[in-house]
Write a sequence for this structure.
């Protein structure tokens, strides 16, 4: 008897999370972003940027009020499929937006491709998302790993360095970044003499730093983000290498990590599609609006979230909010020139931003833009059949 | 690899191994004397690192103290924490089966992680190295070696020496050694086991917290930092022999060497090598390298 | 066998069969996942519950079964269920044979640690070597079919097939535990030394149990890979090993239906604590409530949820009722 009772209660609890309200005129945006763990602040920034744009449009896109369903993806690829299914099957969202971690975003891209759901990726830089997993209604408002790395390859070659050692984590993001750098650098006549890597998310760099010192290259190119970035920069300086062997990196080495890195990051040159002190009217307006609502300074992640909302609005306006018109939705965004705080950008054939990559230097705790490393750089989009 | 590089890599391995020993020694004591598998030991390491981050400004502001003051404050708090945890939670685990201990301490890991998220935050933080330790020493023109890393190795060696002294020259040490070889006998000899257990547990926690605190400036402070340390500590404890501090030292140095040289010589297999080492040693000596005591 | 237990099990299976008619796609997905976990927990039931071998590396066999499916599947075209299912189970069983042969030489806490070490080895092979595809995992291109009758790419079909597997594993284990082999395992669990003293060579029995258990875990892994179409190294990680131990303990060790109950309770607890409708913004800290629940349930429910009616009966009716019940209780 008790067991049947337990079963009934369990069934009731099972049904509780499924309760959702359905309205025909509202558009439901599914935000799959990290709310916990190391990337939580990036997820918050993206969400803030997205909601800022929607608020600027009066809370409506193409006449339809926007409502949100959120899932914390915990930056865990293992739970990715489950989480996407929650948004699609339980919450019945119309559009997917996410995420930070490339492994999770790949799962989103796969499911979006299979179900034909519009997906806008506001960060994850893995090539496959707009490569082998590309789809008609899958777009990216951020970058590919290749872009800032390729730009840096050109910069390092232009500075006259001939031999470079690369170092990164052994995962897709790291591999793509290094190969992007290598492509540009070797095309300009340089040579990558050694490619070092260590398993993600190991933070013991000492052994590899000794390797670098023993190899005596002209420069080092690194790709790290988050905790690894903090530790690497500090260890690099502590090993005395910062003075003898210049360090170059994709912007992720110094984005969001400057407080923790302190003086060890001062003077580092990085490339990214955004930075501090751009000084354009559009960027200033965006930064003012963001600080007024959210009380902190916006970063590249907030810009990417903001632009994701812009892209969605462009598509929705073109089809008057009717998402069944997938061809027109996609075509509108493909044709568009997005007025972004980072500078205007268009979209490549594989739906990735074609944008200026800036050269930045760490000055006084900020990533100051000191020039354009590569103008209107487009990712080659290998493997995409669009 | 030339000689200079090999020497530097040996230094790296030594420092890494010694730090690992500091954390693992606490684990092997708790394991050996109370027979409790404590999966939350990595969390104590994390708590230590976060203590260094949180306490530094507070100690600086109220006492004008620096690095050592923060260390002492952290140590005192950790002893209190250890005492309290043992009384409130761990004392219930002694008579339980290993499976229950594993699962209850696993639940504790989750609780600690979330408490960290609630009390501090989810960001990565840096802890500044004290000025008098932030220099570097040139190593034969190859590269410079941070003074702070020498400091870490030095502290670990000093603590190891201190533990050796306590174990071999004091009454408390004698009781601890006896309890790790034969718990029941010690109890029947009339020694207050409850008090002994509480002291040992608090010491184990303090060792892990201290390791976290002195490692914080080089490892930085981030969510989930306890997990990697935990598994390696178990490997060290099992290789060294449960309850043997001497074994923990040797095993930690072995693990440090395998990890460091593995990363450089065989980067793809680096993660696996430590476990291969453990499997091989256990096949040769199923109870670890040394007996308890 | 206890009649109310049989009725309970049959009712549960019937209820599970009715799920596709009652809920939408999300419900089918969730229940399929829970059933896969139940099969996984059943494999552990054989080891921990019946033989007393606490294996902290069961996720390795689960993950190997899952990775085998993805790696053995042809690049295009759906593979036939008839060969790929046994192949995956064989891979997992083979790995269990290797690990068990070495790990079973150790005892007690060392056994726990060695099984953990081997699972970590498998994890790092998947995580760091090209074989495993790295930390981002690998995608499955086509899901297995059985001729024209059964396409496991269809959620309802997969649900039904998983239910069938679950029933088959359940019946198989129930029969196994009643056999001489099962009795020997029970003897080993209670007092291995005594078994050896009576002339039983315990090692082959333990190894056989280890391999069978690994094969069942591999089956669960295979189904998981088919369901998600995606595998990643976390399927071999120690967190999953801990999770399945929790499921088995939560449900109740020593009882096969404990695995079913434990898997359901575990999944429902996770959904409960993660639910934003109940906890609002605090839902992102769901690990806190979840961890506390794990601690409380291990501490307060030593016999698991299966033992709850017994515990209540003891409280209400006292010692006499308990001893009578214990005489009747069997291992199902």
């Amino acid at each position: 008897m008790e067991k049947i009772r337990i079963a009934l209660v369990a069934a009731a609890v099972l049904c509780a999370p499924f309760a959702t309200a359905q309205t025909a005129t509202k558009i439901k945006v599914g935000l799959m972003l990290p709310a916990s763990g190391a990337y939580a602040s990036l997820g918050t920034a993206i969400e803030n940027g997205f909601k800022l744009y929607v608020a600027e449009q009066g809370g409506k896109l193409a006449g339809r009020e926007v409502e949100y369903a959120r899932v914390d993806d915990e930056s865990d690829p293992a739970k990715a499929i489950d989480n996407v299914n929650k948004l699609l099957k339980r919450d019945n969202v119309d559009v997917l937006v996410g995420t930070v971690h490339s492994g999770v975003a790949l799962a989103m891209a796969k499911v979006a491709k299979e179900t034909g759901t519009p997906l806008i990726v506001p960060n994850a830089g893995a090539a496959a998302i707009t490569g082998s997993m590309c789809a008609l209604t899958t777009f990216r408002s951020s970058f590919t790993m290749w872009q800032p790395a390729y730009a840096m390859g050109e910069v390092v070659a232009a500075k006259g360095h001939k031999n470079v050692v690369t170092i990164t984590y052994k995962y897709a993001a790291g591999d793509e970044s290094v190969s992007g750098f290598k492509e540009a650098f070797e095309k300009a006549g340089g040579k990558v003499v050694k490619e070092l890597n260590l398993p993600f998310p190991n933070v013991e760099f000492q052994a590899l730093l000794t390797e670098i010192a023993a190899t005596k290259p002209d420069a080092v190119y690194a790709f790290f983000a988050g905790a690894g970035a903090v530790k690497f920069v500090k260890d690099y300086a502590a090993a005395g290498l910062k003075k003898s062997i210049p360090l170059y990196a994709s912007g992720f080495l110094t984005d969001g990590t400057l407080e923790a890195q302190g003086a060890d990051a001062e003077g580092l040159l990085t490339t990214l599609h955004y930075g501090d002190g751009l000084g354009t009217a559009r960027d200033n307006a965006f930064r003012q609006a963001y600080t007024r609502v959210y009380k902190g300074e916006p970063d590249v992640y907030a810009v990417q979230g903001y632009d994701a909302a812009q892209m969605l609005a462009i598509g929705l306006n073109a089809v008057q909010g009717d998402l069944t018109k997938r061809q027109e939705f996609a075509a509108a965004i493909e044709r568009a020139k997005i007025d972004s705080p980072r500078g205007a950008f268009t979209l490549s054939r594989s739906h990735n931003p074609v944008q200026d990559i800036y050269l930045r230097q760490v000055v006084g705790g900020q990533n100051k833009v000191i020039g354009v490393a590569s103008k209107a750089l487009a990712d080659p989009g290998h493997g995409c059949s669009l | 690899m030339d000689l200079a590089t090999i020497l530097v890599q040996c230094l790296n391995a030594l420092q890494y191994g010694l730090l690992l020993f500091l954390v693992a020694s606490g684990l092997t004591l708790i394991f050996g004397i109370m027979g409790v598998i404590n999966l939350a030991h990595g969390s104590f390491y994390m708590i230590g690192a976060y203590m260094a981050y949180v306490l530094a400004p507070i100690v600086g502001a109220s006492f004008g103290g620096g690095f050592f003051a923060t260390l002492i404050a952290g140590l005192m708090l950790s002893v209190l924490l250890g005492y309290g945890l043992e009384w409130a939670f761990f004392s219930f685990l002694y008579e339980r089966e290993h499976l229950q201990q594993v699962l209850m301490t696993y639940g504790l890991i989750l609780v600690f992680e979330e408490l960290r998220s609630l009390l501090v935050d989810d960001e990565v933080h840096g802890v500044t190295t004290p000025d008098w330790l932030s220099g570097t020493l040139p190593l034969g023109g190859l590269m410079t070696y941070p003074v702070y890393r020498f400091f870490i190795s030095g502290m670990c060696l000093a603590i190891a020496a201190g533990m050796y002294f306590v174990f071999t020259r004091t009454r408390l040490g004698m009781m601890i050694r006896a309890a790790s070889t034969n718990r029941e006998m010690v109890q029947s000899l009339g020694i207050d086991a409850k008090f002994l257990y509480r002291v040992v547990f608090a010491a184990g926690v303090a060792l892990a917290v201290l390791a976290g605190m002195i490692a914080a400036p080089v490892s930085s402070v981030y969510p989930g930092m306890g997990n990697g340390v935990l598994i390696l500590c178990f490997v060290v404890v099992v290789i060294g022999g449960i309850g043997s501090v001497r074994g923990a030292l040797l095993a930690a140095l072995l693990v440090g060497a395998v990890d460091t040289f593995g990363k450089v010589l065989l980067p793809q297999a680096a993660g696996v090598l430590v476990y291969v080492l453990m499997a091989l040693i256990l096949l040769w000596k199923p109870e670890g390298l040394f007996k308890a005591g | 066998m206890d009649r109310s237990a049989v009725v309970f099990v049959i009712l549960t299976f019937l209820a599970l069969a009715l799920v596709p008619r009652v809920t939408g796609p999300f419900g089918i997905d969730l229940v399929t996942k829970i059933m896969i976990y139940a099969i996984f927990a059943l494999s552990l039931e054989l080891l921990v519950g019946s033989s007393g071998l606490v294996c902290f590396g069961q996720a390795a066999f689960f993950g190997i079964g899952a990775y085998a499916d993805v790696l053995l599947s042809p690049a295009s075209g759906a593979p036939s269920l008839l060969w790929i299912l046994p192949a995956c189970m064989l891979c997992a069983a083979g790995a269990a044979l290797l690990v068990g042969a070495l790990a079973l030489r150790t005892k007690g806490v060392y056994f726990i640690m060695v099984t953990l070490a081997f699972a970590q080895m498998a994890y790092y092979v998947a995580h760091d070597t090209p074989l495993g595809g790295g930390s981002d995992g690998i995608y499955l291109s086509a899901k297995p079919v059985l001729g024209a009758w059964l396409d496991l790419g269809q959620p309802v079909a997969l649900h039904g097939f998983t239910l069938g597997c679950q029933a088959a594993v359940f019946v198989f284990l129930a029969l196994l535990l009643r056999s001489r082999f099962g009795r020997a395992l029970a003897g080993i669990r209670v007092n291995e030394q005594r078994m050896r003293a009576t002339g039983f060579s315990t090692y082959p029995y333990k190894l056989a149990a280890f391999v069978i258990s690994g094969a069942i875990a591999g089956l669960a892994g295979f189904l998981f890979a088919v369901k998600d179409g995606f595998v990643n190294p976390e399927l071999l990680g120690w967190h999953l090993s801990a999770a399945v131990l929790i499921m088995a303990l939560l449900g109740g060790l020593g009882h096969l239906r404990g695995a079913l109950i434990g898997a359901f309770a575990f999944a429902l607890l996770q959904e409960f604590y993660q639910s934003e409708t109940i906890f609002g913004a605090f839902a992102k800290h769901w690990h806190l409530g979840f961890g506390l629940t794990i601690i409380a349930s291990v501490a307060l429910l030593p016999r698991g949820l299966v033992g709850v009616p017994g515990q209540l009966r003891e409280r209400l009716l006292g010692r006499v009722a308990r001893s009578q019940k214990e005489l009747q209780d069997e291992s199902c």
